[in-house]
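Task: complex structure prediction.
Instruction: return structure tokens for all chains below.
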Amino acid sequence: MPKRVDHQERRKLIADALMRVAAERGLEAVSLRHVAAEAGVSSGMVQHYFRTKDEMMTFALSVVRERGEARVTRAVAALGEDPSPRTLLRTMLAELLPLDEARRADGRVALAFLAYTAVRPTVAAGLHRETAELLAFIAGQIRAAQAAGAAETRVDPDRAAVALLAVMEGLGVYLLGGHYPAETALGALDAQLDLLLGPAPRGRAVPPRRPSKP
Amino acid sequence: MPKRVDHQERRKLIADALMRVAAERGLEAVSLRHVAAEAGVSSGMVQHYFRTKDEMMTFALSVVRERGEARVTRAVAALGEDPSPRTLLRTMLAELLPLDEARRADGRVALAFLAYTAVRPTVAAGLHRETAELLAFIAGQIRAAQAAGAAETRVDPDRAAVALLAVMEGLGVYLLGGHYPAETALGALDAQLDLLLGPAPRGRAVPPRRPSKP
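Output:
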């Protein structure tokens, strides 16, 4: 009996190859031919699953995003029940930083994709909803901390959420460029949370991450 | 008498062509051939001035950086003598955001370069000194504000500087992706400065920028 081809699986195989090419050699090396060679399939096969480079890039980024979400979900689950907004936000944002090789590889793909979409507004539009949802979630956590008396109330939660997400994104960009080590980025993230949500509560310290050197 | 060729001028002409290609069509469109066509010169001429793509990219980014510096210098000079650290930092960081078409074009080149260097550590290393100098300057301004009693003293100025520069970079990335309008980015930057340096002083308000729609 012929084996049924799992199309989603094959798309994933090709997207993984695309990501290895992008992470190791940069976005400009991402071509139909290179990706096909890396995946060990024909160029025709790649074209069967992805009609355009936009489609291939968008799918690759969605894989990167799903991995990031899975990492965040795992890390947040490990916090136990009912973590404070500060602990939750710290865990979530630190998990999205390119602090180890796996996350650096994903981060390079995400950065390549950002550069790619900066000249293709229609491709970028697909990401806007996700960003808006993430910002709403962060603003909700800031609002909860303010209501609990733990946070600065003179700052508008929506504006503070935009700034906090931008800190994470900017730290990621500087980490990928090797401008400073992981410790510097985490120190800045903590300083930001100190400013916004007050110092980390004693006796319930956030467990320090042990990042690998970039 | 034959006209003497101005080599710096010709490099600049080629780099400008590279930047137009990168800004309009993305980094992966940047090739010797495309850049030569855009500049109206031969591929051999481009190779005469830039032996490698790394050299061409590095020069293009230095042009973008010089333009940014010139914008910041002009804007800071317009503040008059002895602006407050808050006013100075606000002016400087807002000037570096991609809020109008000229700065968006430069921002796209910078983002493309970041993605390019993320897989080429030796090219990225050339930027590290500039980032360190910028961080030292920002930390110095935060320190001055703290000494003048205008700023939160519970935050380490060096960590706060890393976070503040990351905010600017992250806002730039989200603006280039069209995730939110210029007003949202400026609102977040002001919220960040409110947190760090206290609310803007009354009677000496920072003149509002009038950003163009992205």
